[in-house]
Amino acid sequence: MLYDFLTWLQYDLGRTSEDGQSWSQALNSSKNLWPMFEGTHVLTLMFFAGTIWIIDLRMMGIAFKNTPFSRLNDKILPITMIAFGMMVFTGLVTMFGRQPATFFYHDMWFRLKMIFLVLASINIFWFHYMVQKSQATWDADPKPPTAVRVSGAISMTCWILIIIFGRFIAYDWYKCDKVERGSFVYAFQECDLLYKDLDLDAMDEEERMLEEDADEDPLKGGGVNPFDQPATNPFGEPPPADNNVFPEAPPPDPDAGGEAAPTPGEEG
Q1: What is the pLDDT, as a whole number, of residue 58?
Q2: pTM
Q3: What is the domain extent for residue 51?
Q4: What is the mean pLDDT of residues 76-101?
């Protein structure tokens, strides 16, 4: 169901004709618009992670021990919320404009990023609706209770992994065409959906035949590469040039009568 929805977003939403582009394809082919959204997403992610880590370090009792949690939270939280809103918006637009069905949906790193994003969200709700109820008792404590410290550690760990996995999306190490069919990664990425309209057995057979043709190397066993032979002239080889042969003098003209004219100085 989710895959069908992403496929509709990628190919159909906004397309007005059979040969036209969808909004997703138009955004993907834009020269400046999509990179602008992607760059803004990265910047807002840094703002969000930087501010929430300040809170996490205070919750774990590692930094800002002399500052009450409520005072630090009241100053940092507005920046965190604004950065979070912009991060989510630009992230959705970035995903929408970069082949959501064929690129993101089947990417292992993107799936891991979403898993830890869900875990981070659950941790936020757990802290605000369960752990923070007793904030008055530990607000000024240099070392908060165990539940607070655990929540801060989960938050920091999740957001570090979210950033790492998001960075790995740019690499094609585990794309569907590079992993073995039937492997865990292949199943985890649901690669069968990507190739559901293709005959994978026929593709495997064609690949096997190409490999066999590549193995049948005529040069194995002392064969001669025809491209290494000198080229032949289709009009025949020219006769060899002999630099020691001088051209013969032309024969005398039989029609020329009388004696030869005397040379200057011989006239009597």
Answers
A1: 92
A2: 0.70
A3: 2-10+21-132+140-169
A4: 91
